[in-house]
Amino acid sequence: MSAQIPIAVRHRVSERAQKALDVVAKFVEEDCIPADPVLEAQIGVGDKRWQSHPPVIEDLKKKARSLGLWNMFLPKGHYKESPGFTNLEYGLMAEWLGKSRIASEAVNCSAPDTGNMEVLAKYGNDAQKAKWLKPLMDGEIRSAFLMTEPQVASSDARNIELKIVRDGDHYVLNGQKWWSSGAGDPRCKVYIVMGKNDAGSKDAYRQQSVIIVPADTEGITIHRMLSVYGYDDAPHGHGQITFKNVRVPVGNMVLGEGRGFEIIQGRLGPGRIHHAMRTIGASERALEWMLMRINDPRKTTFGKKLREHGVILEWVAKSRLEIDAARLVVLNAAIKMDEQGPKAALKEIAQAKVLVPQMALTVIDRAVQSFGGAGVSQDTPLANMWAQIRTLRLADGPDEVHLQQMGRNENRRGKAVAEKIAAQKAKTEQLMKQYGVKQTELGSNIKRSNN
To answer: Domain Acyl-CoA oxidase/dehydrogenase middle: where (predicted)?
Structure first.
């Protein structure tokens, strides 16, 4: 809640946002977290899970809207549809939303809808906004984002192969996609699809386009839903989909042909921050479960309560340090986006994207270990949290891609750093001569005389 905002950023959080943050925290803790098991129960078992729409979601949506908690993610100053919160302010709210499976959807701030709404709000024309953005922002429909493909290394988006070919007043799409998150939901009515429309372009970053495809268009086949460490995330799902001569109107092209990379970079930057802050929230919840476990008077090992073992308290302390440090990295990226935009904050966004999931997996794993066998079972939320967050090291670009780019950019300082150090050494030699001294050799023998 607002009292827990890090002092380093508190002056950047408006009074209105602080009040909203308190409402979000109360809503998540008192309404959403208790509703998570209800959601699971209402989804049920078997094939019917893919057709389910748990009533508890709509009830929470109604309450969220009555509390003024709706579409908080569109940043102030960047979208006319924005509710008026900065990336930093929403990031603090997203942390609380990350503590519950149901919370983000309850306030209409869940992926991939948030990213898709950002695409339509920033790059869509009036007709596209009226047809797709409005119902998404009203929570009437859901969407999916289709970029990754099974037959190529999609971590390099230049490899994308799904073909987009102009044919009169339509585009024809042929190809396949997978990890199409959200495609399993019966409420998913629209896909935001990245494909290649000009493979012959000399500029490899101008070959791709983004196009809006209604989910019920003829020629689309959903073959299966992929699981994440055994979890299939019904009814949301992660679909493997093929397009065979799928025809969509020319008016569905977003921004224009060859603008795909520009759009995707604009989409993924804020999304990575949202993921990171929700992951901070999941880490906090994992730490809470660990604290509950180690203070359970029934759980003793070798004659001691769990909290009395030094290694356990070390886990707690390290988790606290790691969560707090990671939070500041993410909030720093959010501030940079607020002040200079996502493109200027690529380094800071990448730092958060790489650091936070790795931290969270470590914290969650400690909590799992503290529970023993129960930690890997369905009796705690920990196993599911670990599985979901593990995917973030792959989603929105694998760690290695971001690390390579960060390393390359950091290494560009090499020449300047070498010149600086050489100049410092030269100055040292000059000072040695000036003061008539010589460099002391480390480890040299010291001769003492007591005469």
So the answer is: 144-246
pLDDT band at 305 (very low <50, low <70, confident <90, very high): confident
Helix axes 113-123, 260-294, angle to 10 degrees: 150
C-beta of residue 65 within 8 angstroms of C-beta of residue 105: no
The mean-pLDDT minimum among 54-58, 331-335, 375-379, 443-447 falls in 443-447
User: Distance (Å, rounded) from C-alpha 184 to C-alpha 142?
Assistant: 10
What is the C-alpha separation between 366 and 294, in angstroms, rounded?
Answer: 11
Q: Alpha-carbon distance 29 to 103, whole Å? A: 10
- Spatial neighbors of 146 by CB under 8 A, at least 6 apart, are 177, 180, 183, 191, 192, 193, 194, 213, 241
For 8-34, the pLDDT digits (tens) are 999 999 999 999 999 999 999 999 999
Q: How many Cα atoms occupy the beta-carbon half-sphere of 425 within 13 Å?
A: 6
Q: Which residues are CB-contacts of 145 (< 8 A; sequence separation ≥ 6)?
A: 112, 115, 116, 180, 181, 182, 191, 192, 267
Distance CA 282, CA 296 (A): 21
pLDDT score for 425: 96
Predicted TM-score (pTM) of this structure: 0.92
Cis peptide leading into residue 112 (ω within 30°): yes
Nearest Cα neighbor of 207 from 255, 169, 159, 171 is: 159
Measured between alpha carbons, how far is residue 314 from residues 307, 319, 327 in Å? 10, 8, 20
CA distance 258 to 101: 36
